Amino acid sequence: MIRVESMVFGPFQENTYLLINDAKEVIIIDPGMYGPNELKSMITYIKANDLKPQKVLLTHAHLDHVFGLKGLLENYDIPFFLHEKDLPVYDTAEAVASKYGVVLSLPKKKYNLIAESDELSFGGNTIEIRFVPGHSPGSICFYSKDNQWVIGGDVLFQNAIGRWDLPGGDLDTLIKSVQTQLFTLPDETVVYSGHGPKTSVGLEKMNNPYFN
Fold it and tell me: Do the Cβ atoms of 86 and 115 come closer than 8 Å?
């Protein structure tokens, strides 16, 4: 069994997710902690719940999803992973942050690549990687069939989809990604989005204006 916890961080109100198994191991997805106070709140939560960080996964590398990456890796000696096609986004994130007037410093630690052909074993469950470009060129989702959820990043929201007007984004590609990689999942699959409330595959197939 994998429990999903979420924390909202940063000026863009980004959802950071923690996947916690029965052994209290934790995978952190999209660490968006902005500034020392938000980083401290994450570390305090980890300590208070006796969690053991294992790795960091990025659905994509837009600045609001990596604000807390450096601070997290300075406190925990764990690897982080992203898709190869999002490396251009990661490499330009600091420059983009300066244009938004926000501070971002990325870690010197070497990234690890994760591909859609990979599967993660965690808590006795398998987490599938799904390639969902369109919001960014290397966006990925993390799907757990056993637990009936998908961590979707900024691809699909409640009654909306992610932006496609950022570098590397494309509307037609995004629509196709959702239709082929998310709408093919069971209707009861919970969708944990990168911003805003959770939803489900069935609700979005029925109500999302981009598909109706």
Answer: no
Residue 141 CA, chain-centre distance (Å), reads 7
pLDDT at position 109 over 90:
no
Degrees to nearest 5, angle at CA 14 with 142 and 198: 55
Cα separation, 54 vs 50, in Å, equals 13
| Cα 131 to Cα 113: distance, rounded to the nearest angstrom | 13
Residue 124 token pair: 């006795």
pLDDT band at 194 (very low <50, low <70, confident <90, very high): very high
Q: How far apart are CA 182 and CA 28, in angstroms?
A: 21
Average pLDDT value for residue range 95-120: 94
Give the pair of three-digit tokens for residue 191. 């969708």
Mean pLDDT throughout 23-31?
98
* DSSP single-letter state for residue 124: T
Length of the chain: 212
Q: By the 8 A CB rule, do 93 and 133 touch?
A: no
